[in-house]
């Protein structure tokens, strides 16, 4: 059962590079293990030099790991590299992965040919992809005349044409304008849902990751620091910081009590109203706060909760605050 | 069938590039023609008048083979360097066909597509000099095929080195002169060169085109050397290419960007 569901299994991957003109080694990946299930969209994140691209290239069979194994659809990609490559395709450098002197259609046909398919065999698929990626009108246009967004879409279409189970994308929205970035996100969602492909995305754009990935694997210093669902991480790092606007001011007794119960609370007075900023360690503590307001029947006008985005979560994880978040959550 | 589709895709790409960038193709043709005119003028001006005709014929065959060697051996090096810089080499390396098959398809397709240019150059040079060579297809074809196989082996070596070495451009510049040396030096001057890739083949083609030697007149020993060179250099070349590919995959050299 597990073998059917798991499409990629990475175990104890290690990779070091020797520095130029030196005997020292750079440990790009020190110990990476994770699994990806069929149809999942997984985000591979990490700061620059964390080991993301090295990991992706090892999965693609472009780099040989020092140790560890990678199985793609049950096939060890070091023992049966070419067989494993039938199940995988990638866009590693976006628009640079194309032949700029060929047209859109010629690129699709050429890459299909290099995987052993004839133009006739892929003709229908090429037409469908041109339609899906809204490139029909540009089919006869040379790639060097296309916008970056269109080139990016074509690179993804080329990867799609491989008919592989897994597609790896390194920075798929890098350098794209907002509109094209959203278009690419929709395409990726459609690839996963409609075509049941597994997608692994490496990106610095946390919006993209939060928007389309179900799960994220965060690498830092060549090691995995987090492997969890995006929703779980959002819940885990959910902050309990509130700003409560009151329709009056607090009495001296209330203020003393507030300071005693919530030492970190920030109380501000304005004309006919006031506000309390408080960071609650436990969600139940909000009742204690309301007891203080109730003491003098101070009306509560609004409660605002500070939101946290995925970028902040990523930064916290990279800084090693994952364990603190788990302790607080439990 | 997959191998045939791979070859067709590469022939088509080669043809498209030649056709789409026709001014480049014509400029390349003219450059080679001008080089030939220079050689021809040199023979006319300072060559021995008694051997002028045979010298011209010798130069025609040599320079046609030089062009062929440049297309097969040198061009693959430049292609790899460009593709590694551009980022397409990694895409090709992810093909389940294996990059060596793609490289072989590239070598064969560039030879096939360039053949038209080679024929044009040959007839243009014969027309210019008035020296009409013996074009005995039946005799030339087997020699040419065996010679090309050894050239492909050399092409594989250059392709492999281009994958591993980022600064190979300087060597590729020098290589065109090494190739010229191998095609222009007659075997009578340096008989040991018979065991170098394609030198024996050029020598035999010279014998056919200049002296009118026929297939039945070629010694079995010569064919043996030709056959040995073809098999030896092809497999040595392929082995070196696969080794270079593995080194590149260990050191992360498939992309030079």
From TrEMBL, chain B:
InterPro entries: Nod_factor_ABC_transporter. The chain crosses the membrane at residues 21-43, 63-81, 102-125, 137-165, 177-198, 223-244. The keyword Transmembrane helix applies. Keywords: Membrane, Transmembrane, Transmembrane helix. The keyword Membrane applies. This is ABC transporter. It comes from Oceanobacillus chungangensis.
